[in-house]
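Quick one: structure for this chain?
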Amino acid sequence: MLLGFFFPLLFQEVYFKNLSKQKQKEVMEKNGNNHKLRVCVATCNRADYSKLAPIMFGIKAEPQFFELDVVVLGSHLIDDYGNTYRMIEQDDFDIHTRLHTIVRGEDEAAMVESVGLALVKLPDVLNRLKPDIMIVHGDRFDALALATSAALMNIRILHIEGGEVSGTIDDSIRHAITKLAHYHVCCTRSAEQHLIAMCEDHDRILLAGCPSYDKLLSAKNKDYMSIIRMWLGEDVKTRDYIVALQHPVTTDIKHSIKMFELTLDALISFNKRTLVLFPNVDAGSKEMVRVMRKKGIEHHPNFRAVKHVPFDQFIQLVAHAGCMIGNSSCGVREVGAFGTPVINLGTRQTGRETGENVLHVRDADTQDKILHALQLQFGKQYPCSKIYGDGNAVPRILKFLKSIDLKEPLQKKFCFPPVKDNISQDIDHILETQSALAVDLGGTNLRVAIVSMKGEIVKKYTQLNPKTYEDRLELILKMCVEAASEAVNVNCRILGVGISTGGRVNPREGIVLHSTKLIQEWSSVDLRTPISDALHLPVWVDNDGNCAALAERKFGHGKGIENFVTLITGTGIGGGIIHQHELIHGSSFCAAELGHIVVSLDGPECLCGSQGCIEAYASGIALQREAKKLHDEDLLLVEGMSMKKEEVVSAAHLIQAAKLGNTKADSILRTAGTALGLGVVNILHTMNPSLVILSGVLASHYVNAVKDVINRQALSSVKTVDVVVSNLADPALLGAASLVLDYTTRRIY
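Got it. Here's what it folds into:
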């Protein structure tokens, strides 16, 4: 587990080594004789403070560059919402101004009046502070008032978390703030692309990741059990409680209150200890609190209802929970860093990028549906997700702030279509190329590579595959650590680890169920958990044949093809099936075992124990077997061939002999090609793909034979299929990378 926390520190160390101090000095000189940047951070509620606090700590730690003024407003100052301004004071920040801006009523009119009240009070504060730049977070109505005031008073605005998508009025507010803001810090590549599509200036966008992840990914709490017991009781165990956090949906208050009522009923029926946090100050929150009290939640023995939990303690509570339920953005963003199961209810987060840990219940209209979701999710453990950050957002943001030239014109420039097809500026290339760590477990070699989004193998490492499970896992971790460290130097951001291995694999759990005879001690092996825990990265595992198909779908002949089959012709025969653009795994993860299609009832024995399989005719092992028979009978070597005494007879010798006119060798190859062709015909009659891709070292030797068999044996309706040889140099590694790079993050229940 220590390795998991090592990587953010490693990346940060490399980052600081690469800082261009000369450039910062030049900007400061432009801004006027060591002028410190006066930064106003305005925080409205407990949620935005969790994102702004890491930036505030970073600014405070560099007084030679910055002056920090803190303005507190909104629900921070309301007792019903926990008087959360106190946690700002506990963090030792001086609060320059407290503005009471919330008009009570918790309905739509009260929200509008609150914005108006903030607009009345803020100009006086900003006139007194005269900040060079104001940092505004997110999509709350309070933040809209802040951005409007600053924009009209010619104060530069840095907007955190712009470009994201969700399912309520917050979307409109977030995008409105984007149009007012001069600079943008976004968390994901999709958010960055949205900002570019909204005509924001490429040079003023920073893809930094979420600041809260800087704290999340370094949160090694020594005594998390004391925190759990403090909030949930002495008898609670880790992974055996639920955290519930649900807010009103302002565009459909009546439905969101009904959904909250159903959620509480489901939680009562589920009968697990539950920590319920009060909703935010949006319209409808008062009615939600009434529902809690009507159901006696505050006095129920299984429930603990609280107004506020300090963020560092909240981190530990969700990190060790059996499940989180509700519609808070925290569930789809921050909780993924721990792999804790999340049930996202309703439409409030529609459009958010999510990790594998999130189960969406879009229409949470019955208690049974929510209860079933709890039964599906509770107690699971998913791979840690770093969609929203890698733990280094704050150093990037600070450098971004230092690069701001106050003498540049204040007026915004918009980049109207056509939008340039390039990456937005990343401050001296600090932002890395999105990449994957690809691992290929072969019978002989163990290979690890850094693979970019475009399929470029940036760096590759190769070692002999150890014979024992312990040595093999240790070597995988060592090679991955080395590759991840090197990724920083070659400007690559690792999104996750993809593993291609022989044998039958359960990709949902990341477990090798049982392996081929070529890889020893490799059955019932959980690959995902130890690697994910050590690297603090999500991990995907699949069979090597499936990975080859994924490689073709993303980088090869299969790109854009709806239905195709990949056949690997190497030491063994394997493959993968893409049907309607999706990989087929089968009910027991045994789909596409194409090498074990039987083409003769009395054919040679196969390694699987059957007879007449394609693999028994056409694999490298089968050809080597036939070559040895010919060699033992002195029928292999022909004029132009020679072998050393110690040289092992291989399939290559058989192919060479056939090329030099050895009729027996040629007959064996023709039989092998026919067997493979018959197998392909069976596939055509079963799956009806539009394309068959032959991959592996023997593919070019078989392609013509396969086409001939199709012409002779296949039904006329499938004879038009294209049969091609793969043009990918390394399908196993590219396929493993595709597991990461093409992973679909959104699941719907």
